[in-house]
Specification:
Chain lengths: ~290, ~350
């Protein structure tokens, strides 16, 4: 082997490129084939409307209230669900961290992930329906006179998003919380900080970067809600989310370019929100959450 | 407001114990710490010394006994209301705050005026010689500097009592010596009462006014460093204090001491308690020397050069390992004749 070859290989290795780098190739191909290509295809397709100029699909979306209102409707569901799931996960994770039977509780909390949206929706329909257990208990015990409506409206979708979204935010938050050295809180206590001060001055600043990521992921999940919006919501009314109109454009009107344009707008909204969240993350501390060399 | 005032007379532990389920991590701790005193809790790992410290700090509730600061009962109030300073083994600095804000933390929870905080943080920074590092984050400092910040943060609130949990164990040997001197200097300057947990007997001997040796969750001896070094009251304390030669033999009280058997010969020792029949006796390697007419014959197995002296292990005629010091070169295989002065052979009842 010549000296030149050796030195090239060495130069590459010093830049972090060696045989192991090749292992990312399958992943890159996978992403290219199943994400980048369809995305570009959809983007291009959205600029080739059935009628009109190249921007006609977007003009149509923003001139028809039936379409553009879905952005607001979706945000009305997705933002509260995201905030609720994330905010709720913090105290639960803080408590679970201290528990002895952490694994058991974590397993119970995570079970909804394994069920899938449709099964959760089906369960809720039976359980919360007008003749379901909940309403029967409420009626028989005389707490209410008429059945409480929790399905086929906004609350049905919200409940489903919390049930299927909370395990995700909880698991993420738990991992961030357990990454914080418990000695930091003890040090805060020794310096006279009450639990409230310890939370806001020590835990929260250290959790903030992780919470930004959790918010971003939870938002994406909630913003793209589809099955539960149809099954548990009122898909013609208050839960006519943006993915429903994209679906209708594609598979009821067979207008793929319009559907693509709606999908692109969904992506754009998500990117803007995620960028804002991750941008806010750079404003707070982002170093390691423990000190010490030992 | 912290209930503890700087002017206390003494901290009292009365029969303090702590169980973890079936495990008695700590039992029967009785200790008085006077104002200004430096007390070390010394013991092997798992002996309960950190548990004892955490009971004093309030991070752990004792399951038995009571802790008093003068006439105030401490064990029923939380750590945030005790007003003690604490230095943690891994420093536990807040990684998202600058050095200044770390040190100021305790003052801000007391809602001190801003200019007072500023002044006292500056004083604390000067005390630990980190005047130029105030705006850095803890992650940008070396281990020794982080430890100084941790000390400054604990003492800036002028606590009546500073608790230190193995503060030097994460530092390298040279830095450990430096920081040891630093802790001594700060203690002398401020006179703050200190309880210091360590497993390093040298650290305890050099820093403390008094040492409490703990073994298996129980205090075994409380005394000055000199007491513990030369007059341990039991064989296991002696073992922990560096008496490496710990042998069991029949013992006989004779005029001028007790005679015990080592390497097949009889030597004289000093009884530390009434002896009858069997005894355990302890000799420091420093007190066992080869001499021309030493009574104990032994074969050198390993010899280590320690600069001025040699420390060596020899096998006695009964197969026992004998640790000794020699100021002359000894080599493996050589036969030496060891001797120990009567007053340096401590005999305990077995």
């Amino acid at each position: 082997m010549s000296a030149a070859q050796l030195s090239l290989r060495r130069r590459l290795r010093e830049r972090g490129l060696d045989g192991v780098t090749l292992l990312v190739l399958p992943g890159v191909l996978f992403v290219l084939a199943l994400f980048i290509y369809p995305f570009i295809y959809g983007l291009v397709l959205s600029f080739h409307p059935k009628q009109g100029g190249w921007l006609a699909n977007y003009q149509k979306f923003f001139t028809e209230p039936f379409l553009y209102e879905t952005i607001w409707l979706t945000l009305q569901i997705a933002v509260p669900a995201t905030l609720l799931n994330t905010v709720l996960s913090v105290p639960v994770a803080l408590r679970v961290r201290l528990m002895k039977r952490q694994k058991l509780l974590t397993t119970i909390l995570v079970i909804p992930i394994t069920l899938g949206t449709v099964m959760v929706a089906d369960g809720l329909l039976t359980y919360l329906g007008p003749r379901g257990w909940l309403n029967r208990i409420l009626l028989d015990s005389g707490i209410t006179d008429s059945p409480v409506r929790l399905i086929h409206n906004y609350w049905g979708v919200m409940l489903s998003l919390v049930i299927s979204g909370f395990p995700f935010t909880f698991l993420l938050t738990l991992s961030y919380v357990t990454g914080i050295d418990p000695a930091l809180e003890q040090a805060g206590a020794m310096l006279g900080a009450k639990s409230r001060q310890r939370f806001f001055r020590i835990l929260l600043p250290l959790l903030a970067p992780g919470l930004a990521i959790t918010l971003a992921l939870a938002f994406v999940q909630a913003f793209t809600v589809f099955p539960s919006a149809i099954l548990l919501g009122a898909p013609a009314g208050p839960t006519r989310v943006i993915s429903i109109v994209a679906y209708q454009a594609a598979f009821e009107q067979f207008d793929y370019p319009l559907a693509s344009a709606i999908a692109m707008l969904m992506a754009l909204i998500q990117i803007v929100i995620i960028a804002a969240l991750l941008g806010a993350r750079t404003l707070v501390f982002r170093g390691p959450v423990s000190t010490g060399k030992g | 407001m912290p209930i503890a005032s700087r002017d206390f007379r003494e901290l009292r532990l009365e029969g303090v114990g702590r169980d973890f389920g079936q495990l008695h991590a700590l039992r029967d701790v009785n200790l008085r710490v006077k104002r200004g005193e430096f007390v070390a809790l010394l013991g092997p790992s798992g002996c309960g010394k950190s548990t004892a410290l955490n009971c004093i700090s309030g991070l752990l509730q004792p399951t038995d006994g009571a802790i008093w600061l003068d006439d105030k009962r401490l064990d029923e109030i939380g750590p945030e209301d005790r007003g003690f300073g604490m230095v943690f083994q891994n420093y536990a600095l807040f990684p998202h705050m600058t050095v200044r804000r770390n040190i100021a933390f305790g003052l801000t929870t007391q809602r001190r005026p801003r200019d007072e905080i500023e002044r006292r943080v500056n004083e604390a920074l000067a005390l630990v010689r980190l005047e130029t590092q105030g705006e850095k984050l803890p992650g940008q400092l070396s281990g020794g500097q982080q430890q100084r910040v941790a000390i400054a943060r604990a003492i800036v609130v002028e606590p009546p009592l500073v608790l230190m949990d193995e503060p030097l164990s994460n530092l390298d040997a040279k830095l450990r010596l430096e920081m040891r001197a630093e802790i001594r200097r700060i203690h002398t300057m401020l006179g703050c009462s200190t309880i210091y947990v360590t497993h390093d007997q040298e650290e305890a001997l050099s820093l403390a006014d008094r040492i409490m040796v703990m073994i298996d969750g129980q205090p075994r001896q409380i005394g000055t460093p000199e007491d513990l070094y030369s007059r341990p009251t039991s064989a296991d304390v002696a073992e922990f204090m560096g008496y490496r030669n710990l042998l069991t033999s029949p013992a006989q009280t004779v005029p001028g001491g007790v005679s015990v058997m080592i390497g097949g010969v009889q030597i004289l020792g000093t009884p530390m308690a009434p002896i009858n029949g069997k005894a355990t006796f302890a000799i420091r390697p420093d007190d066992l020397h080869p001499t021309a007419d030493g009574p104990i014959p032994a074969t050198v197995e390993i010899a280590e050069y320690h600069g001025r002296d040699f420390y060596a292990v020899a096998r006695g005629s009964e197969g026992e390992d004998l640790y000794f010091r020699s100021n002359k070169r000894v080599t493996a295989g050589e036969i030496v004749h060891l001797a120990a002065a009567r007053e340096r052979v401590l005999v305990f009842p077995a």
